[in-house]
TrEMBL record:
The lineage of its organism: Bacteria, Bacillati, Actinomycetota, Actinomycetes, Mycobacteriales. Residues 43-122 form the Carboxymuconolactone decarboxylase-like domain. This is Carboxymuconolactone decarboxylase. Gene3D superfamilies: AhpD-like. Transmembrane segments: none annotated.
Length: 186
């Protein structure tokens, strides 16, 4: 298990590793959450990975709702309590219903397009590729760039899940609440 970097061990290198993701006033152990506070144990890796992860979360061409559906299904497949804890709340904020969130867990959606998204994640998880029929179903609403972003969102959040699970990063007690996001400025 890797714990978040203790406050007394934070230095300029740890704070700078968060520069692409976190404003200067929040580059502190009490303001970034357990995941980032753990990743800065390896500042070079954090500096390389976080811009990619930030792209997936904030600049991707995927509609927010689809992005969160992909992340939730990915978190479910990997049993990543940390990702699920944060993104189930974020998903509701961007328009998913509680039923949609439950569907991300069960792999069953009432909406045909949402089902195509879940199927794509399932196919990536089990076979490392999206089948031609599922690619076509996704293409009814997503262009090529968006479908590429879907695949990379699965891959990026799978990588993050591997790390969070392996490091046993604890989910914050108030994760998923408005209080948590206010405290870290998200």
């Amino acid at each position: 298990m890797l714990t978040p970097l203790p406050a007394e061990d934070w230095d300029d290198e740890a704070r700078e590793a968060l520069a692409s993701t976190v404003p200067p006033e929040r580059r502190r152990p009490d303001k970034v959450g357990n995941a980032l506070a753990t990743l800065v144990r390896h500042p070079q890796l954090a500096s390389a990975f976080l811009p990619f992860n930030t792209y997936l979360q904030k600049a991707s061409t995927l509609p927010e709702r689809v992005r969160e559906l992909v992340i939730l299904r990915t978190a479910f497949h990997h049993g990543c309590v940390y990702e699920w804890g944060h993104h189930s709340a974020m998903a509701v904020h961007v328009g998913l219903t509680e039923g949609d969130v439950e569907g991300a867990q069960s792999g069953s959606a009432t909406d045909a397009f949402d089902q195509a998204v879940l199927d794509a994640v399932d196919e990536l998880h089990t076979g490392s590729r999206i089948s031609a029929p599922t690619w076509e179903r996704l293409g009814q609403r997503l262009d090529d760039r968006q479908r590429m972003d879907l695949m990379f969102t699965f891959g990026g959040y799978s990588t993050l899940a591997f790390a969070l699970n392996s490091f046993d990063v604890p989910l914050e007690a108030d994760a998923g609440t408005d209080e948590f996001y206010a405290s870290v400025g998200s």
